[in-house]
């Protein structure tokens, strides 16, 4: 498909909205991406035509719902190139997925073991592990950031050892947009006998991910960053590893046999999918992947890169503006501050112009501490944005500067 942003924008009903009398300019795509009409309609279709619980009924409507739910699992498997569909666990999103893994390792690790996290993480890839080490007393070490915001890989090489059992980090930083060298980190970790969990919440929307080629052990993403609905995502894990983990939640659907004396668990993937799942969300996630594949991730990557360069160059012309994590290998996220101005004040004025940006710590306080700041303004671009919108942002920032100075 040839990439035509004006045609693509017609698929997103929210872009017709006015905010404070101005056309919505949505630059908060890293928090949640917007949803195309085909995905929205897939949810209403489910409730209109085949709303039923899955895996349980012998009746036709339940069978249709089960088939659609399972077909989404297969679409995710294919899109991310997992070996087996049972390696794809449908979860409520990245946070849920990471909690499943951290909980699963609680009983497998002891105080003799070590785990390594990057200093560039979203809180959802920090807190579940802290909760884990409180119980098993494994040692948690951190890969520090260099001055420019990139990970200090030499430091990582100096702390990893045969004691290290898990290394976990994001593929792309939500606060800075920096793409981490995960291929190298996976290779070094495996050489030392450690498994790797990659948080793909911010990478999966921007470029192709091949799980088998990466040889990553665990990977997770959220549909709402990928043109899908909220409350649904997936956890990938190599089959032999997932089989060893105790499930986070017990309940219906995840069992093989239940007596008051003992319960045995169901096979993968059901072992990790207790209770009635987000059926319509899972189905819509499949439609979101269809939509993204129709446009093509290579087209998306190239266009977003063009927007990123244009926005970065334009923002750099504003006096007193400083970009954090301004490196060469980035997705379309720009985090900045303007001398003597509070990010919250800038964000509030931009909203008056219908421009949605995020301000604050972006659930990544250690990154803000690294740069000795309390927060930033974050502009996160996607393939539905245009250069014209970036021009309007620059205009509005200049007005905000005059108003606040
Ligand atoms: N990890 C990263 C890098 C993120 O950007 C986010 C959300 O912003 C999350 C994890 C958490 O995702 P969710 O809230 O969908 O569980």
3D structure, described in words:
It is built from 14 helices and 17 strands. It folds into 2 domains: 5-29 and 296-404, Aspartate Aminotransferase, domain 1; 40-293, Aspartate Aminotransferase, domain 2. The chain has helices at residues 5-9, 37-49, 60-79, 94-106, 127-136, 153-159, 182-191, 211-214, 239-242, 279-295, 297-316, 343-352, 365-370, 387-404; strands at residues 18-19, 22-23, 25-26, 88-91, 114-118, 139-143, 164-170, 195-199, 218-222, 233-237, 255-258, 263-265, 321-324, 333-338, 355-356, 358-360, 376-380. Helix 11 (297-316) runs parallel beside helix 14. By secondary structure, it is an alpha/beta fold. The structure holds pyridoxal-5'-phosphate. Pyridoxal-5'-phosphate binds at residues 31, 93-95, 122, 124-125, 170, 174, 199, 201-202, 222, 233.
Oligomer: single chain
* Domain tally: 2
CATH superfamily of the largest domain: Type I PLP-dependent aspartate aminotransferase-like (Major domain)
Give the class from helix and strand content and strand pairing: alpha/beta
Cofactors, ions, other ligands: pyridoxal-5'-phosphate
Task: Give the name of the CATH architecture of the largest domain.
Answer: 3-Layer(aba) Sandwich
**Spatial strand sequence of the major β-sheet:** 4-10-9-8-7-5-6
